[in-house]
Write a structure and sequence with these properties.
Blueprint (H helix, E strand, L loop, with lengths): L16 E7 L2 E7 L3 E8 L7 E5 H9 L7 E5 L3 E6 L2 E6 L18 E4 H9 L16 E7 L2 E7 L3 E8 L8 E6 H11 L5 E6 L3 E6 L2 E6 L18 E6 H12 L7 E7 L3 E8 L3 E7 L2 E4 L2 E6 H9 L5 E6 L6 E5 L5 E5 L5
Antiparallel strand pairs: 1-2, 1-4, 2-3, 3-15, 5-6, 6-7, 8-13, 9-10, 9-12, 10-11, 11-24, 13-14, 14-15, 16-20, 16-22, 17-18, 17-21, 18-19, 22-23, 23-24
Helix pairs in contact: 2-3, 4-5
């Protein structure tokens, strides 16, 4: 768990390491890349206090190859870790713990508490929509807005937007908006694992801390103003289509094979006829797929980046979705049938 945030070939050698330290009868493992820090505690019998750092990758791969779950650790001269497990005896060269960067702590009371399963589900439906371009740090991160007894999570790259609202386990004393690096959110998602349990969220002026079970994740906050994205969400639509999620996914994947040099596919919807998905190119040929769907409103159509639609559909665990459209130049929306806590906005492509 802690080794994931460690980079490769850091110029500061100790950043390639994890810190092992005895802490009140347990072993504390820590790692950091100076943007994200992770602390986790494991139970064990502590005979002598000690601390040192060892290479994260070597330690992780070695432990994974041991046949026994029981391991004895001993520190020699502050720079060598001795590991013993059944017939295995190993010395791993490390660095003094004094060289390891201090991972800050947030001593204040928890700002908010949230169910781990709900948080993990919300992250899986949003984080992938953030921008990959770090020249725009605000939208390369994930937006969180704490409002009374709910948390609103959003991610956008200006071409698409994913927003999910989650209930908190209690109201917050004051509303708060923050932007977190997308990598922080990706690591948080992995740490949550099965997601069962309560997540406590803490803030300082420039950092956030997520505490789950015996693990803490600490991250810097992105300084800046998140775009007022809600102004681009349409208030009404001219056409709504109720369509099976998997059928639409299969149609999009089939169409994608016929646009090897672009991501452009066409969706046409007609009342009484359903959805027609088409794609063509000079090199590959042409593909048309007809999907039975319930269409409400007027006939409509637009060209979309198929990857943007698949990103959404792949991360929604529902049977049916609603596709909402205005025209071929206005934002369209995808929402899960029977839920009002999620909205995905995607811009059509102007040819």
């Amino acid at each position: 768990m802690v080794s994931r945030v460690v980079g490769n070939n850091n110029p500061l050698q100790v950043l390639n390491n994890i810190l092992l330290k005895t802490d009140q009868g347990r072993v504390k493992l820590s790692s950091t890349n100076l943007e994200i820090g992770v602390n986790t505690w494991v139970g064990g019998k502590v005979d002598k206090e000690g601390a040192l750092t060892v290479p994260a990758r070597l330690m992780n791969e070695y432990i994974n190859n041991l046949p026994s779950e029981k391991v004895t650790l001993e520190s020699l001269d502050n720079s060598t870790l001795v590991l013993e497990s059944e017939n295995y005896h190993t010395n791993i060269k490390g660095l003094p713990h004094e060289d390891f960067p201090l991972i800050p702590s947030i001593a204040e009371e928890a700002f908010a508490k949230i169910d781990g399963t709900e948080l993990k589900n919300a992250l899986s439906e949003t984080v992938w929509a953030s921008a990959q371009n770090e020249t725009q740090p605000e939208i390369s991160g994930v937006f969180m807005a704490f409002e009374k007894d709910s948390l609103r999570i959003a991610a956008t790259d200006r071409y698409r937007l994913a927003e999910r609202t989650v209930k908190l386990l209690g109201p917050v004393e004051q509303e708060k908006e923050v932007i977190l690096p997308a990598r922080t959110i990706a690591e948080l998602y992995k740490i949550l694992g099965a997601g069962k349990g309560e997540v406590e969220i803490y803030f300082s002026e420039s950092q956030a801390l997520f505490k789950f079970d015996e693990t803490e994740l600490i991250s810097r906050l992105i300084d800046g103003q998140y775009p007022d994205y809600r102004q681009i969400i349409p208030k009404s639509f001219k056409t709504e289509v109720e369509v099976p999620r998997e059928e639409l996914m299969h149609a999009l994947k089939a169409a994608s094979l016929f646009v090897p040099d672009s991501n452009n596919i066409t969706l046409e919807v007609k009342p009484g006829a359903g959805i027609t998905v088409t794609a063509s190119s000079m090199a590959a040929g042409e593909n048309t797929t007809q999907i039975k769907a319930k269409v409400t409103g007027e006939e409509n159509g637009a060209v979309f980046n198929f990857r943007y639609l698949l990103d959404c559909l792949n991360n929604l665990a529902v049977t049916t979705v609603r596709l909402k459209m205005i025209n071929d130049a206005s934002p369209a929306a995808v929402v899960p049938e029977g839920r009002d806590n999620y909205t995905y906005i995607v811009m059509p492509i102007k040819l």
